[in-house]
Design goal:
This protein is an alpha+beta fold. The chain starts with 6 loop residues before the first helix and ends in an 8-residue tail after the last strand. Helix 3 packs across helix 4. The radius of gyration is 18 Å and the shape is elongated. The protein binds the ligand Nc1nc2c(c(=O)[nH]1)N=C([C@H](O)[C@@H](O)CO)CN2. The site of the ligand Nc1nc2c(c(=O)[nH]1)N=C([C@H](O)[C@@H](O)CO)CN2 has 9 residues, from helix 4. Pfam families: FolB. This is Dihydroneopterin aldolase. Keywords: Folate biosynthesis, Isomerase, Lyase. One of its GO terms (molecular function) is dihydroneopterin aldolase activity.
Amino acid sequence: MRYSITKEWKNPGAPLADTVLIEGLVVETVVGVYDWEREVTQSLVIDLEMAWDNRVPGKTDEVADALDYAAVSTRVESCLQTLRPKLLEYGAEVLAKTLQDEFGISWLRLAIRKPGAVPAAKAVGVQIERGEKTETGAR
Ligand SMILES: Nc1nc2c(c(=O)[nH]1)N=C([C@H](O)[C@@H](O)CO)CN2
């Protein structure tokens, strides 16, 4: 008899490790603490890792069961363009809460980079993790 080794078999009750990814999403918005920065738009680069139970869309092949990365990307852009944050920290906090509330994401890791803000660096930025990974991926 053959046994397939599943996560549940190895570690019942463990948080689901599945995620949906968005990497290198470029958003043009007003951002920054200095007066000149309130007069221009600059590029932010967003990386997102979001807990989701991919077993369900993996069975049904229905986007309605998936965390739609296209829909999330559109919301990331509209959120940051409306917010026009001074600090990346504030942008990250509001964006994380917006995505968790609107898409039912239990846990996410979010990085916002601001290329060119420090000319000697490739990019500077912030990274946050919010929420808990649950057994099913749901909130
Ligand atoms: N931790 C942070 N430090 C700084 C930020 C920020 O958002 N978080 N922002 C700035 C300025 O806006 C800078 O990017 C202008 O080049 C400075 N430090």
